[in-house]
Amino acid sequence: MIWAGDHGDKFPFQISTNEGGTIELCNRDAESFDCNSLAHFLVISNELLTPKPLCCPHDESRILAADWGKLSETNLSYRLRTDAKVNESNSREILAVCPVDGTVLYCDGSVSRPNGKPEPTGFSASYERMQRKLEKETPNTPMNFMVMSNEPTTPRVNFFNRESASTNSSYEKK
User: Fold this and answer.
1) Over 25-61, what HEC string results?
2) Domain assignment of residue 110, yes or no
3) One domain for residues 84 and 134
4) What residues make up the domain containing 163?
5) Collapsing DSSP states into helix, strand and coil, what is residue 2?
6) Which pTM was predicted?
7) d(CA 30, CA 158)
C-alpha cells in the first residue's frame, strides 16, 4: 500500500519493469496467486525496514531472512495475488493469504484473521501513507502522529511537532 501510494496508487505488479514495477515478471497460477512473489516483494524493499514481516511467525517451514540481500523463496510465507482485479479500487479483493494460519490481506490494507474478525487497525497502511504524505509536505519537521479514528475509509490523524508538542494540524483522507 505504501509503495502504491508513491506510484500512482498501483501495486508493483501493475507497473512495467521499465518504470520500476514487476508486471512482466508475473507468473500466476489458476487462482491468480503469483509463483514469482519474491520479485514483487523485492521491489517494495525500500518500504520495509526488514524482510522479517514476509515470514509468518507461525510458519515453521520458513526461515526469517536477516536482510534483503539474503531474501529468497525460503523466507516467504505469503501467497500474493497479482491479477487485474487486485487494486485499491477493489478494496475487499484479496491481495495476499497466509497458507499457514489463514490470515488474509485485502487491497485496502485491512487484515482478516481466520476467525473472520478484522485485525485491530492501530497502525494501518492508510495511516502510514498519510504520515508519508505529511512528511513530504513539511520536510525537515519532526512530527509524531496520533490516530484519531480507526475507520478504515476515513482515518483522521492529528500530528504535532515533536519539539514543541503542540498540535499543528490534522489531515483527513479524502
Assistant:
1) HCCECCCCEECCHHHHHHHCHHHCCCCHHHCCCCCCC
2) no
3) no
4) 125-172
5) helix
6) 0.64
7) 44
* One domain, residues 9 and 65: yes
77 vs 62: CA distance, rounded Å: 7
The Cα–Cα gap between 78 and 167 comes to 39
Q: For residues 22 and 119, give the distance between their C-alpha atoms in angstroms, rounded to a whole number.
A: 29
Which residue has 490470515 as its cell numbers? 103
Q: C-alpha angle with apex 131: 126 to 142, nearest 5 degrees?
A: 165
Cell of 98: 497466509
DSSP string, 114-162: TTSPBPP-TT-HHHHHHHHHHHHHSTT--EEEEES---TTS-EEEEEET
Residue 107 resides in a domain:
no
Q: What are phi and psi of 136, to 5 degrees?
A: -70, -40
Residue 123 has a pLDDT of: 44
User: Which grid coordinates are listed for 31?
Assistant: 487462482
Taking only the tens place, the pLDDT of each residue in 9-54 is 899 999 999 999 999 999 999 989 999 999 999 999 888 888 988 9
Distance between CA atoms of 169 and 25, rounded to whole angstroms? 42
From the CB of residue 141, how many other CB atoms can be counted at a distance below 10 Å?
13
Q: How far apart are CA 128 and CA 121, in angstroms?
A: 11
Record the cell numbers describing residue 142, joined without a space.
519532526
